[in-house]
Design a protein that fits this description.
This protein is α/β, with parallel strands linked by helices and 394 residues long. The protein is built from 12 helices and 14 strands. It folds into 2 domains: 249 residues, 3-Layer(aba) Sandwich (Aspartate Aminotransferase, domain 2), CATH 3.40.640.10; 124 residues, Aspartate Aminotransferase, domain 1 (Alpha-Beta Complex), CATH 3.90.1150. The strands form 3 sheets. An 8-stranded mixed sheet has the order 1-9-8-5-4-2-3-13, sandwiched between helices. Strands 10-11-14-12 form a 4-stranded antiparallel sheet. A hairpin with a 2-residue loop joins strand 6 and strand 7. The longest helix is centred in the last third of the chain and has 32 residues. It starts with 14 loop residues before the first helix and ends with a helix.
């Protein structure tokens, strides 16, 4: 009996992470504190950004980033503004935009990169467009030179949803740093794991201060004396610890997550290198496959997972492939949300579709992805190739 298995996710911790959790327990400080602050500083340095703010998930990072754009003193977004988004992304790329009353305009994705089709983006931009969400899908950065050209002379803001692409680079620069803000996730199955967790990075001091208030109840407690949100602080801790100035949330991470982040971040470069080694093997096996297409790299992907999109003339369906993989103990899942406009949740959103979503529909119907990990997957990838090949009767 073949005892090979290929899981979707794996644990990235060792004794260092376990020890860090025990140290937090011994400290008695479980809610957001010094470990979170240390992780924020170290993450900002690693990414090459002036500021990083940690929250309790990548979804919360997207929520905080969108919300912050409504409270700027200059150039704030307004309800009803148009935002261009790719049709394929995770649900919480879209939900904060709808919750803040923005009008979503969906564009198709590129069949090769799986990121949004930049020609379709160019055609979709209108006088009403105020925001562009660039989603770096499955580890793959967008072509930010082209994106910047598209919005260079327009009053359009750029945010990166980089929750699946920590450690990816474009022309040597970290993905997540090309927009006004970039969001990251450190959920269990991602490049590093703080159990739950996310971050927002920005160069903009005003946005950083807004994010500090939004993260914790909208109060002034975490703001520096000289800040852009409420400059009239008098240094009265009794009153100003409970002074609410923005309609905020409780998005605070735990100290456990901050401590874990510090340990995991040290290992991230090694994790990404091993993921890229696995990607080379994956490309060798599937790069010229007659029945499945794979994601084409832009810049240097951090390879969140390995997408397989069944070609229209393949002798088997996705259902048949999914069953064969399950029988072989190879875990897989759809490519993010597929075409998100085909999900029932869109009935609650104000949106338009800018073009035919041909590629998004094909991904929705014929795509899946398998996992990538921080260790050598050569045997698992060869096993995957054998299972895929067996479906064609060869």
């Amino acid at each position: 009996m073949n005892d090979m298995s290929y899981p979707l996710t794996s644990v990235t911790w060792d004794d260092e992470e376990i020890t860090s959790l025990q140290e937090v327990i011994a400290s008695g400080q479980f809610t957001m504190g010094e470990h979170v602050g240390q992780f924020e500083e170290e993450f900002a340095t690693f990414i090459g950004s002036r500021y990083a703010i940690m929250v309790n998930s990548g979804s919360s990072a997207n929520l905080a980033a969108v919300a912050a754009l409504f409270y700027r003193k200059s150039g704030a977004l307004q309800r009803g503004n148009e935002v261009i988004v790719p049709a394929v992304s995770w649900s919480t790329t879209f939900f904060p935009l709808a919750q803040y009353g923005l009008k979503l305009k969906f564009v198709d994705v590129d069949a090769d990169t799986l990121n949004m089709d930049l020609e379709k983006v160019a055609a979709a931009i209108s006088e009403k467009t105020r925001l562009l969400i660039a989603v770096n899908l499955l580890g793959n950065p967008n072509d930010f030179e082209r994106l910047k050209d598209l919005i260079a002379d327009r009053d359009i803001l750029l945010i990166e949803d980089n929750c699946e692409s920590m450690g990816a680079t474009f022309h040597g620069r970290q993905a997540g740093t090309f927009g006004l803000m970039g969001t990251f996730s450190s959920f269990f199955s991602h490049h590093i794991s703080t159990i739950e967790g996310g971050l927002v990075v920005t160069e903009d001091e005003e946005l950083y201060h807004i994010l500090l208030a939004l993260r914790a109840h909208g109060w002034t407690r975490n703001l520096p004396p000289n800040n852009h949100v409420y400059p009239d602080l008098k240094g009265d801790p009794f009153y100003e610890s409970f002074l609410f100035v923005l309609p905020g949330y409780n998005l605070r991470p735990l100290e456990f997550s901050g401590a874990l982040g510090c340990k995991q971040l040290v290992k991230l470069t090694r994790f990404i290198a091993e993921r890229r080694n696995n990607a080379r093997k994956f490309q060798e096996l599937f790069g010229d496959h007659p029945h499945v297409a794979i994601q084409q790299e832009v810049g240097q992907s951090s390879w969140f997972g390995f997408a397989l999109v069944i070609r229209s003339d393949a002798p088997y369906s996705r259902n048949e492939l999914v069953k064969a993989l399950a029988d072989a103990r190879i875990e897989c899942r759809p490519i993010v949300s597929g075409n998100f406009t085909r999900n029932p949740a869109v009935k609650w959103m104000d949106y338009t579709i800018a073009c035919e979503l041909t590629n998004a529909n094909h991904i929705h119907d014929a795509g899946l992805f398998v996992g990538n990990h921080h260790y050598d997957l050569s045997a698992q990838l060869e096993y995957l190739a054998d299972i895929v090949q067996s479906l064609a009767g060869n």
